[in-house]
């Protein structure tokens, strides 16, 4: 049995005092990709203390917590019939442990509670593992590709 399966975590809405843990989680999870991001795209992805405060104010943010530490996070927001996910990250030691699926489930439940009929997310090309994860969880590429600080940003969509 792996140590991952023996560790426990809880999913909850982030509180204002979770900002530092969210920034640390995003920075650690995206660090392996930093050389494949433009500097502005990386900063917008991993956030800083000001940007995380904005996200906590503007979106519903969930955290996965183990022994008081943030081990994963995702944010979501609803507008009309569409929800949107942003900033999904799981620490490398926790990948494959069910944290990402639990975070996604919590965000989708929040979006459904807002009567949304679909949810979107955007991801960059370096995140192949994330794209496989989203596909396994019912997301498909919408075909929309936009510019994200000089990077190609692919939209994914899931209908409820």
Could you give a short description of this structure?
The protein is α+β, with helices and mostly antiparallel strands.
What does this protein look like?
This protein has helices spanning 3-6, 19-30, 39-46, 49-58, 99-113, 128-136, and strands spanning 10-13, 60-66, 69-79, 82-90, 118-124, 140-148, 151-159. It is of the alpha+beta class and 160 residues long. It has a single domain, classed as Aminopeptidase (3-Layer(aba) Sandwich). It has six helices and seven strands; from the N terminus they run αβαααβββαβαββ. A seven-stranded mixed sheet has the order 1-2-3-4-5-7-6, with helices on both faces. Helix content is 36%, strand content 35%.
Mean pLDDT across the residues is: 95
Distance between the termini: 35 Å
Give the full name of the CATH homologous superfamily: Gcn5-related N-acetyltransferase (GNAT)
Q: Please trace the helix and strand order, writing H or E for each element.
A: HEHHHEEEHEHEE
Overall 3D shape: globular
The number of helical segments is 6
Quantity of strands, as a count: 7
Q: Compute the gyration radius: what is it?
A: 15 Å
- How many structurally independent domains? 1
**Regarding CATH, which class?**
Alpha Beta
Largest sheet: 7 strands, mixed
Class based on secondary structure composition and strand pairing: alpha+beta
Quote the beta fraction.
35-45%
Notable traits:
single chain; Aminopeptidase; globular
Element layout with pairings:
Layout (H helix, E strand, L loop, with lengths): L2 H4 L3 E4 L5 H12 L8 H8 L2 H10 L1 E7 L2 E11 L2 E9 L8 H15 L4 E7 L3 H9 L3 E9 L2 E9 L1
Parallel strand pairs: 4-5
Antiparallel strand pairs: 1-2, 2-3, 3-4, 5-7, 6-7
Helix pairs in contact: 2-4
